[in-house]
């Protein structure tokens, strides 16, 4: 259960990061509200997961999921450049996250 909560919390990290960008310095109400809610749920899920998963592994997996998710959101929704180098680096992060899970 802790791993499922951790993955969901990592996805919520992508949500709050995207909402933070859309909030434009907290000048837009609903993206700011979404940011706060997603941040609270994401951190709560991370905290719950760390009761069973070592902090180094849990935090790295959480950040990796959030980083990859946010980068993919930027590429797919915000027209950030999609280059071979960027995709290769994202795949390296995914490989690291999977490796941490398998070696846990």
From TrEMBL:
One of its GO terms (cellular component) is plasma membrane. It is a multi-pass membrane protein. Gene3D superfamilies: 1.10.3730.20. It holds the Pfam family Multi_Drug_Res. Its main location: membrane. The keyword Flavoprotein does not apply. Keywords: Cell membrane, Membrane, Transmembrane, Transmembrane helix, Transport. Signal peptide: none annotated. One of its GO terms (molecular function) is transmembrane transporter activity. The chain crosses the membrane at residues 33-50, 59-78, 84-103. It is found in: Cell membrane. PANTHER family: GUANIDINIUM EXPORTER (PTHR30561:SF0), SMR FAMILY PROTON-DEPENDENT DRUG EFFLUX TRANSPORTER SUGE (PTHR30561). Belongs to the drug/metabolite transporter (DMT) superfamily. Small multidrug resistance (SMR) (TC 2.A.7.1) family. This is Quaternary ammonium compound-resistance protein SugE. It comes from Amycolatopsis sulphurea.
């Amino acid at each position: 259960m802790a791993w499922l909560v951790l993955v969901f919390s990592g996805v919520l990290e992508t949500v709050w990061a995207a909402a933070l960008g859309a909030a434009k310095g907290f000048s837009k109400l609903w993206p700011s509200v979404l940011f706060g809610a997603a941040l609270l749920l994401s951190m709560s899920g991370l905290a719950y997961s760390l009761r069973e998963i070592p902090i180094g592994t849990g935090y790295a997996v959480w950040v990796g999921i959030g980083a990859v998710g946010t980068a993919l959101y930027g590429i797919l929704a915000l027209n950030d450049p999609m280059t071979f180098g960027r995709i290769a680096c994202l795949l390296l992060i995914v490989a690291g996250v999977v490796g941490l899970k398998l070696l846990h």
